[in-house]
Write a structure and sequence with these properties.
By secondary structure, the chain is α/β, with parallel strands linked by helices. The protein has 21 helices and 13 strands. This is Mitochondrial (MCT) (Mitochondrial malonyltransferase) ([Acyl-carrier-protein] malonyltransferase).
Length: about 525
C-alpha cells in the first residue's frame, strides 16, 4: 500500500507505483468497484494518480536531490529549496517547522544558505529571514558534525563568507534584502498550481516562453533614473565598468544631471544602454525565466545594443565600447565639427501615410540638402531626418498636407539616414575589431534595419552587417513588432525608462499593449 506523507504518496521498496500498474489490476476496474472519478469526493482527498493542491516544483529546482518529486529520499522540503536558491517567495510557502527541519543528512535550511551560489555569495536574504523567524540555529550540526558556518566556510570565498558572518553573528541585514523582498514577494509572479482532479501538466522548461523583451531608445532618459536599481550588485558592476571605459562618472550624471548634458548623444546613449540592462536585471529578480527563456528581443535604435547583450551576442563591456564609439561619432556629426558639415535635424510626423511622407521628403530635398524617413514607428507615424533646412521644409509641407502633428525634435540629428555614412564606417571598424568576441544570439532578435528575425543559426557577420546598416537605414519598428506577434510572442516587456514603446504598441496592436508590462527604472 502507498503511504501518504506530507501530502505526497510514497511506495515501499519493491512495490510497483499505482500509475504503472495494469488497468485490470486496479480495484476500481473490477466488478463492484466504480471509477474513483464517479464518486463525489471532497477536494482534500488524495489519491496516488490524482493531483493535490500543493505547488508543483520543477525537477531542476531540486538539483537531483528529489528529482521526481515523489521519491524524496534526501527529505528536502520547500524551505531547503528556497534556502539553496535564496528565494523569499518560495520560503513564504514553508511552515516554521520546515524552516528548522533537517534533511536526511542533517542539513537544515540554515545549512543550505551556505551552499547557495549567487553574485553576492551565499543565500543571504533567506538567511536573514530565517534569523528573523527564529528558525536559524548556528550551533546545529549536520550528519558530518558541521555547523552552518562550516558549510559556508567550505563553499564561499573569503569576501562572501564575511557577509554571511555579518548576518549571523552581527545581525547586519544584507544589502540585497529589501530589493529582493520587494521584487520576489510582489503578486506579479505566479507559481503553477494543480487544480481539481485534472492530471498535472508539467511545463517543459527547455522550451522558450512566448515572451518578447523590448528596449527603448534615445529620448526616454531622464535625470534621476536608476534610483532603486543602482543598488543591485549587477548594476553597480556595470556602473563601475562604465566609469573605467567612458572616462567619466556616468552614475553622477544620471543622478544629478544637468538634463541638457544627459540629453547629448554621447552621454545619452551609454546611459540608455545601462538603464535598459538595469531594467533587465530587475526583471531577473522578479521573474528570472522571463529573461532566461524569452523567445525574442528587440530594441529601438540604440536599444538594439541592449537587446543583443540580453541575447548573448556580446557582453556588457563590449557593447558599451561599441556604443561609446557610435555615440561619439554621431555627436561629432551632429555638432557640425566636421569641415563642410551641414546642420542636421529630425522631426516626428503623425497623420500622413508612408507614400505622402516619402513624397514630401523628396519635395523638400535639393542638391546637397536631403531628408528621408528615419523610423517607421506605427501606422501613419514616422520620424524624418536629414539636413536641417530640408527637415524644416518638410515640416512646413507636412503641416500644409494635413498632418495631425509635425514637430522638430531637440538635440537630434540626421540619425538613420545617409548623412550617417561616416559614422557607419567608424562603427564597422569597431565591430570588426570585436567580432571575435561576438556569438550568435541565444534567441530571436528582430533587426531595426530589416525587421527580419536573426536567430541562433545566424552568423556573427550577419549581425555586424545589420548593426552597420542600422546607421543609414530607417528603423522598421512597426514591422518588427508585427513580425514578433505573428511568430507567436504574446507577452511583451518594455525594459528601460519611460513607456515609449508601450505607447507605440497601442497603435500597432491594442490587445497586446493592454497586456504589455513595463519594468521602468
Amino acid at each position: 500500500m502507498p503511504v501518504l506523507q506530507g501530502g505526497d504518496w510514497y511506495y515501499v521498496d519493491g512495490e510497483k507505483p499505482s500509475p504503472l500498474k495494469e488497468p485490470e489490476q486496479k480495484a476500481e476496474n473490477k466488478p463492484g468497484h466504480r471509477p474513483i472519478s464517479s464518486y463525489q469526493l471532497p477536494k482534500w482527498v488524495y489519491h496516488p494518480e490524482r493531483v493535490n493542491r500543493r505547488i508543483v516544483i520543477n525537477k531542476e529546482d531540486y538539483f537531483g536531490m528529489a528529482a521526481d518529486g515523489l521519491r524524496n529520499f534526501d527529505l528536502w522540503n520547500v524551505a531547503h529549496v528556497a534556502a539553496y536558491h535564496d528565494d523569499l517567495k518560495l520560503l513564504s510557502l514553508a511552515t516554521l517547522e520546515q524552516c528548522k527541519e533537517p534533511n536526511r543528512w542533517g542539513m537544515t535550511p540554515m545549512h543550505m544558505t551556505g551552499l547557495g551560489q549567487h553574485p553576492y555569495g551565499p543565500s543571504l536574504c533567506v538567511l536573514w529571514e530565517l534569523i528573523q523567524l527564529g528558525a536559524a540555529d548556528p550551533e546545529a550540526l549536520n550528519s558530518a558534525d558541521q555547523s552552518a558556518w562550516h558549510i559556508a566556510q567550505r563553499m564561499q570565498k573569503p569576501s562572501h563568507l564575511k557577509k554571511w558572518e555579518k548576518v549571523v553573528f552581527k545581525g547586519v541585514k544584507p544589502d540585497e534584502y529589501e530589493a529582493r523582498k520587494q521584487a520576489q514577494l510582489r503578486p506579479r509572479g505566479k507559481f503553477a498550481r494543480a487544480l481539481g482532479m485534472e492530471p498535472v501538466q508539467r511545463e517543459d522548461t527547455s522550451k522558450p516562453l512566448p515572451v518578447c523583451l523590448v528596449f527603448p531608445g534615445q529620448g526616454s532618459q531622464y535625470v534621476g533614473m536608476l534610483r532603486q536599481q543602482k543598488e543591485l550588485p549587477a548594476v553597480q558592476k556595470m556602473l563601475a565598468t562604465a566609469k573605467e571605459v567612458l572616462g567619466y562618472d556616468l552614475e553622477e550624471l544620471i543622478s544629478k544631471g544637468p538634463e541638457d548634458k544627459l540629453s547629448q548623444t554621447k552621454y545619452c546613449q551609454p546611459a540608455m544602454y545601462i538603464a535598459n540592462l538595469a531594467a533587465m536585471e530587475q526583471l531577473k529578480l522578479e521573474e528570472e525565466e522571463k529573461v532566461s527563456r524569452c523567445r525574442a528581443v528587440a530594441g529601438l535604435s540604440v536599444g538594439e545594443y541592449a537587446a543583443l547583450t540580453c541575447a548573448g551576442v556580446f557582453d556588457f563591456e563590449t557593447g558599451l565600447r561599441l556604443i561609446k564609439a557610435r555615440a561619439e561619432a554621431m555627436e561629432f556629426e551632429v555638432s557640425g565639427a566636421r569641415p563642410g558639415a551641414k546642420a542636421q535635424g529630425m522631426c516626428l510626423v503623425v497623420g500622413l501615410d508612408k507614400d505622402s511622407v516619402e513624397k514630401h521628403c523628396k519635395a523638400s530635398s535639393s542638391k546637397g540638402e536631403n531628408c528621408q524617413i528615419a523610423a517607421c514607428l506605427f501606422s501613419r507615424a514616422f520620424s524624418v531626418s536629414g539636413s536641417l533646412s530640408a527637415v524644416e521644409s518638410f515640416v512646413e509641407k507636412a503641416k500644409a498636407a494635413g498632418a495631425l502633428d509635425c514637430v522638430l525634435l531637440k538635440q537630434a540629428g540626421a540619425f538613420h539616414s545617409s548623412e550617417m555614412a561616416d559614422v557607419r564606417n567608424i562603427l564597422v571598424k569597431e565591430l570588426e575589431a570585436v567580432k571575435g568576441k561576438m556569438m550568435p544570439p541565444r534567441c530571436t532578435v528582430y533587426c531595426n534595419a530589416s525587421a527580419k528575425a536573426v536567430g541562433p543559426q545566424s552568423s556573427v557577420q550577419e549581425i555586424v552587417k545589420m548593426l552597420a546598416e542600422q546607421m543609414v537605414s530607417p528603423v522598421l519598428w512597426e514591422l518588427s513588432m508585427q513580425q514578433a506577434i505573428s511568430d507567436g510572442c504574446t507577452e511583451f516587456y518594455e525594459l528601460g525608462p519611460g513607456t515609449q514603446l508601450k505607447g507605440i504598441m497601442k497603435r500597432i496592436d491594442g490587445k497586446i499593449a493592454d497586456k504589455m508590462s513595463n519594468i521602468s527604472v
